[in-house]
Amino acid sequence: MKKQLSHIDEAGHASMVDVSEKQASVRIAVASGKVIFPSDVFSQLAAQDFLGAKGSIIQTAVIAGIQGVKKTSELIPLCHQINLSKIKLDITPSENTLQITCKVKCNEKTGVEMEALTGVSIASLTIYDMCKALSHDIKISEIQLEQKTGGQHDFNR
């Protein structure tokens, strides 16, 4: 079976996928990404328990990521609006890095990969925004889908 783009119709135009005939099922997606800091900046942030002038960097990014997940269909033009069952966004410090993981769950006719990826992206951008006064040499890296279950095909990185 030849793979083809699902959001492009026969005429080459953008098209939202018709999921009306699909069965609802439990769908889960997990995405991850990293925000990498210069070592001196990371040391300064860690020494302050990741608290900045605008408040808790990590908790603010968690809330922003959750909001991003909930707004995905407004940000990505061909995404469906779906009812979400669960969002879990974790941010863990490691060597000069904040590691972000976002797990999204629903019982719907379409998956939540874009929601999980959006959650990681928005959390990453929030961290950058809150820390850019210390350095612009902060890198957002390796945003990727780690796992998806439900629907026609499962995926595990």
Summarize the structure.
By secondary structure, the protein is an alpha+beta fold. Helix content is 29%, strand content 33%.
Textual characterization of the structure:
It is a single chain. This protein is of the alpha+beta class and 157 residues long. The chain has a single domain, classed as 2-Layer Sandwich (Alpha-Beta Plaits). The chain contains four helices and seven strands; from the N terminus they run βαββααββαββ. A five-stranded antiparallel sheet has the order 4-5-1-6-7, with helices on one face. A two-stranded antiparallel sheet has the order 2-3. A hairpin with a 2-residue loop joins strand 2 and strand 3. The longest helix has 19 residues, at 113-131. The protein is elongated. The mean pLDDT is 93.
List the helices and strands and how they pair.
Elements: E1 25-36, H1 39-47, E2 51-52, E3 55-56, H2 57-70, H3 72-75, E4 84-94, E5 97-108, H4 113-131, E6 139-149, E7 155-156
Antiparallel strand pairs: 1-5, 1-6, 2-3, 4-5, 6-7
Helix pairs in contact: 2-4
The computed structural class is alpha+beta
The CATH homologous superfamily is named: Molybdopterin cofactor biosynthesis C (MoaC) domain
**Number of structural units classed as domains:** 1
In the CATH scheme, the class would be Alpha Beta
* CATH architecture descriptor: 2-Layer Sandwich
| Number of helical segments with 4 or more residues | 4
